[in-house]
Amino acid sequence: METLLVTVELGFGVVWWYNRSVMTREKQLQIQLRAIRFLRVLKHGRTYSELSQLLKISPIVLNRYVKGHVLPEIARAEQILELCTWEKLAEQAQQLLAFDEDGFIDNTALLADTSFLATVADLVATRFPNTSKVLTAAVDGIPPAVHIAAELGVPCLFAKREREIGVSKFIESRYKLSGGQMVSYFLPATALRRNDRVLIIDDLLRSGETQSVLVEMVQMNEATPVGIFSLIQIGEEGVRRLQKSVFCPIEALLVLS
């Protein structure tokens, strides 16, 4: 049987590859469903005619794919996924954000778009394959973290600002606000184990204070942070803060100044 190695460049040095000649039906279905999910992401803010110009596929056929009436053939699914790069998803993230008159970000639409989050999760899981647990801070970090943990097939842990009723022992980490008020985060003491490889996820990285708290929780349990990923990064302050305490990749889908 002829061997056909298919590779897809995802950006950030990530290459997704597989051998089509030994592909199981389950693997084919995963690729087809990923393609449909990505089409739904691309459809946001576009007409079917505009989507057709981008993909060189009939608007009628695209409509059937997006609505889930028909699965694309595997070769066509691969063609669609060739566009699924970090850069393309960053463009889509920008479209899903809104800003008020004072410049504050409204990421409601971004966090509510499950097709978008699942597509991002596909790429993040490829970037950090050796993760044993995902950790985030409640509440806005939960949507992306859950999707990424599900794609990796690992537990998803939530650090909260209140102690959970029914849990007797906690890990606590805190930071001080500019006004002097202390902010604490709590995680059940049994959630992390020594030698866990932990991927830290959040929706937004600005000052890096919340992410630093999560890093401290990981290190307190002698676990290892394997990466820090946020959907949006604003400026470089947070990255500089984190680089003082952790030696792992710090990445964001969309970086704003």
Which secondary-structure class do the elements indicate?
Answer: alpha/beta
Tell me the CATH topology of the largest domain.
Rossmann fold
Query: Spans with pLDDT under 50 lasting ≥5 residues?
Result: none
Number of strands: 11
Distance between the termini: 52 Å
* Total discrete domains: 2
Strand order of the largest sheet: 6-5-9-10-11
Number of helices: 10
Q: Let me know the average pLDDT.
A: 92
Q: What is the second-level CATH architecture of the largest domain? A: 3-Layer(aba) Sandwich
Output the keywords.
single chain; 257 residues; alpha/beta; Rossmann fold; 2 domains; 5-stranded parallel β-sheet; two-stranded antiparallel ribbon; 10 helices; 11 strands; 26% strand
Task: Describe what this molecule looks like in 3D.
About 40% of the residues lie in helices and about 25% in strands. By secondary structure, it is an alpha/beta fold. The protein folds into two domains: about 5-85, no CATH class; about 105-255, 3-Layer(aba) Sandwich (Rossmann fold). The protein has a five-stranded parallel sheet with strand order 6-5-9-10-11, sandwiched between helices. A two-stranded antiparallel sheet has the order 1-2. Helix 1 (about 25-45) packs across helix 4 (about 75-80), helix 1 packs across helix 7 and helix 5 (about 85-95) runs antiparallel to helix 7.
